[in-house]
DNA sequence: CGGAAACGGAACGTACCGTGTCGTGTCGTT
DNA sequence: AACGACACGACACGGTACGTTCCGTTTCCG
C-alpha cells in the first residue's frame, strides 16, 4: 500500500484525531498495545481511513512524534558551545523521559528493522536534518575558535547522541544534568586534545 | 507465566532445536516474521514445550543470542589499551553486521520497552557483565599509566558503545575499521585531556 | 448541481496468540 | 524390576488484531 493518494479533499479533522489518539493510547497502554483498530475506535474513524494515508502504525506515530518534536530541542547559539550543547542534549533526554514521547520513539525505533521505508523516512525527516543542525552549530563554534579547525564534527555528534540512544534503548535510567555536562565536556576535550 | 519449572528431565535435544530454529528463521524471514508457531513447526516441537521454558519469543532469541555471543567479543589484554579497544569494538560491530545476530539483537532491543522482565534479563545477563569487563580492562590500563587515575571509566564505556548502538538502531551503515580507530582515539583523548 | 472521492460503519478470512487436553514415552525413585 | 511423575508431541480451542472489501453517506471540486 502506497502512503498518499495525494488529495486535497483529505479530512484534516480526521488526521488530527488519528494522530492525537495514537499518542494518547501510547501514553495509556504503551506502544506495544497500540493497534490500528484501537486508534480508529478512539478517534471515531474508519480503519480504512487510516490505511488510506499511512502504511503502518509506526508511520502514524512517526508523524505524530515529528509534529510534536519540532520545537522541543532547538539549537540555540549563545556563543558558548559547551552551554548550548548541554541544554540541547538535556532537552532531548528530558523529552525522551516523558510519555508518550519516550515510549513512542522507542516503538518507532523498534519498527525500523522490519520496515525499510519507515527507516528511510525517519532518517530523512528527523535524524539527518537534526544532525546537520548540530554540525552547523559546532562549525559556528569552530569559526569562533572554540573548536580546532580539523575536528571531526560528525563523530562528535555521534559521541553526543550515542550515549543518549544507548541508555534509551537499554532502558537505563536517564542521565541527570551533571552527567550530561560531563559527557559534553569529554566530547569537547576529545576534539581539542592532540592525537596520542 | 514463570520461566523455568526447573527440572532435570528437560529435553536438551528440544532445547537445541528450538534455539537453532529461532536463529535460522530470523535469518530467513527477519525478526518481525518469526513466530512461536513457526519456531515450533520448524523445530519439530510442540508450542507447549516452548511456552513451558520461555515466556516469549524475545526470551528465546535472547538465550540463542547470548549463547552465540559469549566468545565473539572477548576482552584481551595485550598491554596496549588502544589496540585492545579497537579490536573489541570491531568485533561487536562485525557481529552486529551479519545475520542472524544483527537483526536478532535489534528485535530483542525492540521488545525491551514492553517487556520489563526481558529488559532486566538482558541487562543482568548480557550488558552489565560486559560493561564490568570493559571497565576492568580500562582499570588495568589505568594501573599501567595509560589512563589518568581520576578518569570516568563508566562514561568511557558508554562513549564507546553509544555510537555502536546509535548506528545499529538507526540502521546507519556500520563503522569501518578506520572510523572505529578514530572513535577509540577520541574517547581515550577525552580521558587524558584536562578539563577546560 | 452533478459526480468523484473520502468518509464511517460493519463484516470478512487469515494469522498468531496463549491455553487446555490427551495419550505416549522416558526418566528418577523405591 | 515396577511404579509413578512429568516432559513430551499433537491437536483443538477462543481471543485478538491484522489488512481488505462492501455499502451507504457526506463532502467538496468543477
Automatic annotation (TrEMBL), chains A, B:
InterPro entries noted in UniProt: Homeodomain-like_sf, HTH-type_TetR-like_transc_reg, HTH_TetR, Tet_transcr_reg_TetR-rel_C_sf, TetR_C
Single GO term (MF): transcription cis-regulatory region binding
Protein name: TetR/AcrR family transcriptional regulator
Keywords, sorted A to Z: DNA-binding, Transcription, Transcription regulation
Species in which this protein is naturally found: Streptomyces globisporus
PROSITE patterns, A to Z: HTH_TETR_2
Lineage, highest ranks first: Bacteria, Bacillati, Actinomycetota, Actinomycetes, Kitasatosporales
Annotation: DNA-binding region: 35-54
Domain annotation HTH tetR-type: ranges: 12-72
Amino acid at each position: 500500500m502506497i502512503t498518499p493518494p495525494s488529495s486535497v479533499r483529505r479530512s484534516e479533522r480526521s488526521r488530527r484525531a488519528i494522530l492525537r489518539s495514537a499518542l494518547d493510547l501510547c501514553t495509556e497502554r504503551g506502544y506495544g498495545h497500540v493497534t490500528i483498530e484501537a486508534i480508529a475506535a478512539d478517534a471515531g474513524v474508519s480503519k480504512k481511513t487510516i490505511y488510506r494515508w499511512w502504511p503502518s502504525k509506526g508511520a502514524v506515530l512517526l508523524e505524530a512524534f515529528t509534529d510534536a518534536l519540532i520545537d522541543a530541542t532547538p539549537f540555540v547559539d549563545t556563543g558558548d558551545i559547551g552551554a548550548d550543547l548541554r541544554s540541547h542534549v538535556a532537552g532531548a533526554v528530558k523529552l525522551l523521559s516523558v510519555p508518550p514521547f519516550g515510549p513512542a520513539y522507542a516503538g518507532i525505533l523498534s519498527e525500523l528493522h522490519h520496515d525499510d521505508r519507515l527507516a528511510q523516512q525517519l532518517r530523512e525527516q528527523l535524524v539527518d536534518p537534526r544532525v546537520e543542525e548540530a554540525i552547523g552549530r559546532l562549525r559556528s563554534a569552530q569559526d569562533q575558535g572554540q573548536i580546532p579547525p580539523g575536528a571531526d564534527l560528525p563523530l562528535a555528534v555521534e559521541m553526543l547522541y550515542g550515549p543518549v540512544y544507548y541508555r534509551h534503548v537499554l532502558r537505563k535510567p536517564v542521565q541527570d544534568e551533571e552527567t550530561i555536562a560531563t559527557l559534553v565536556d569529554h566530547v569537547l576535550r576529545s576534539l581539542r586534545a592532540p592525537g596520542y
